[in-house]
Amino acid sequence: MSYKRKIPWKKYASSTSFYALAARLVPIFMVAAILLSIAGLYTGFILAPIDYQQGNSYRIMFIHVPAAWMSMFIYLLLAAYSIISLVWKVKLADIMAYSLAPTGAMFAFVALLTGALWGRPTWGAYWVWDARLTSELLLLFLYLGYMGLYSAIPDRQRASRAASFLAVVGVVNVPIIYFSVIWWNTLHQGSTITLTGSPTMTGDMLLALLLMALACWAYTIAVSLRRAQAVILERKRLALWASQMSKR
Amino acid sequence: MDLKEFFAMGGHGFYIWWSYGVAMLLMVGEAVFVARRYKKSKQALAQMELEFLCANSTKVTNGQGIK
């Protein structure tokens, strides 16, 4: 059983070393996010040509698609951290889940809003009750449910458990969003980029999309780590207060 | 390409600029909000540590300095 001790899991999962690591990573990823989004917007608006079918409105894709991807990826992370927090009671996993949720909700909202603004000139409607759109709306509600549940229960451990359960159960929605354009006949177009097969767009469009996606990733890492740092400090303050009160 | 034409985006300017405008506002807003929360929690912890340090060293602990 001694092999288990070789990897210092405790060290990586401790909030002190995590805090120090986050402090170093946040500025790097924030600068990366700014530079990548400038490069992405330049490529998307200046270099990429006009689309022969949709005209210029397709340029909404460069924010819409990365936001939608992020909203799904972040939910998967949220669910994974929630499982770790539920099963192994790793406090840091709970802090990361809590810190990712608002950013995920923000991206889900951006995906829905930019989708509506893209749908109007393309389909003639801001909103339709289509499988892709409806399941993405449900994703936003799951994020809001997680955040609401977490803050509605005063006891933190119970709040964390309840919210984590919701996050884990809700993960079933992610493949539904992803495959909705295949499973159902939807108004929403299918993926232009798939793991197999070549993408059906020009090089500059693809480059802009990838740059914007990377920018959103860097942004998510920077913001969620910073939020996690703040949460660590807030909890440390509470613990300090509690220990001082018990001394009297 | 002149600027007016660029912003018109062939009649799709309204949709495009609202999309990017709101997305940018939300992202910058969230980043600022989080940075503020971090700064505040850092200050609050430092202040509490200082207060407890003073309270413990001077033995004047009749709730002074602690809210």
Notable characteristics:
heterodimer, A: 248 residues, 8 helices, globular, B: 67 residues, mainly alpha, 2 helices, rod-shaped
Would you give an account of this structure?
- By secondary structure, chain A is an all-alpha fold.
- Chain A has helices spanning 9-13, 15-47, 61-88, 91-123, 131-152, 156-170, 173-183, 203-247.
- The longest helix of chain A is centred in the C-terminal third of the chain and has 45 residues, at 203-247.
- The radius of gyration of chain A is 21 Å and the shape is globular.
- Chain B is rod-shaped, with a radius of gyration of 25 Å.
- The mean pLDDT of chain B is 86.
- The A-B interface holds A 30, 50, 55-57, 59-60, 63-64, 67, 102-103, 106, 109-110, 113-114, 117-118, 120-121, 219, 222-223, 226-227, 229-231, 233-234, 236-237, 240-241, 244, 248 and B 9-13, 15-16, 18-20, 22-23, 26-27, 30-31, 34-35, 37-38, 40-42, 44-45, 48-49, 52, 55, 61, 66.
Number of strands of chain B: 0
How many helical elements of chain A? 8
Number of helical regions of chain B: 2
Radius of gyration of chain B: 25 Å
Largest sheet of chain B: none
Q: Tell me the distance between the termini of chain B.
A: 63 Å
Helix share, percent of chain B: over 70%
- H/E element string of chain A? HHHHHHHH
| Contiguous runs where pLDDT drops below 50 for at least 5 residues of chain A | none
Amount of beta strand of chain A:
under 5%
Give, in order, the helices and strands of chain B. Answer: HH
Molecular shape of chain A? globular
Oligomer: heterodimer
Ends apart, CA distance between termini of chain A: 43 Å
* Rg over C-alpha atoms of chain A, rounded to the nearest angstrom: 21 Å
Q: Describe the main β-sheet of chain A briefly.
A: none
- Give the mean pLDDT of chain B: 86
Specify which chain pair forms the largest interface.
A-B, 37 and 31 residues
